[in-house]
């Protein structure tokens, strides 16, 4: 039987103080590229959004090498998305004692990396690789008839 193996790792960064639109401009350039190519692109791009994304890609690669023992040369960015976060609200003083609301946007960035050297499916000999706990006769749950509880009502 074929069992699906874990070949993807992700890194998530929340509440980054920049617009989601500005972060998407950089994320669209690196989606689907290899890890090493992505690092070169992010180092050379002139946008402010590159540094947090660079740190996030580096973190996802560290997760892949730690959790799956994969080589960095085999990593590809399979999914990258930017979602809007909460807006930090501030008040700016204006003329004649009034105040003007300032909304500073935040965003959440998710990077998913896939190891292309690993197979997605693993073949096992039988249905369950581990023996289930309920197969042991010592720990099996004994089901009783609900009307015979061994109490005073069973006596004649």
TrEMBL record:
InterPro entries linked to this entry: Ribosomal_uL22 (IPR001063), Ribosomal_uL22_bac/chlpt-type (IPR005727), Ribosomal_uL22_bac/org-type (IPR047867), Ribosomal_uL22_CS (IPR018260), Ribosomal_uL22_sf (IPR036394)
Keywords of the record: Chloroplast, Plastid, Ribonucleoprotein, Ribosomal protein, RNA-binding, rRNA-binding
Record CDD domains: Ribosomal_L22 (cd00336)
Coiled coil spans: none
Main location as per UniProt: plastid
GO molecular function, one term: structural constituent of ribosome
Subcellular location field: Plastid, Chloroplast
One Gene Ontology biological process: translation
Cellular-component GO terms for this entry: chloroplast; large ribosomal subunit
Function in brief: The globular domain of the protein is located near the polypeptide exit tunnel on the outside of the subunit, while an extended beta-hairpin is found that lines the wall of the exit tunnel in the center of the 70S ribosome. This protein binds specifically to 23S rRNA.
Quaternary context: Part of the 50S ribosomal subunit.
UniProt record similarity statement: Belongs to the universal ribosomal protein uL22 family.
Protein name: Large ribosomal subunit protein uL22c
Classification lineage: Eukaryota, Viridiplantae, Streptophyta, Embryophyta, Tracheophyta
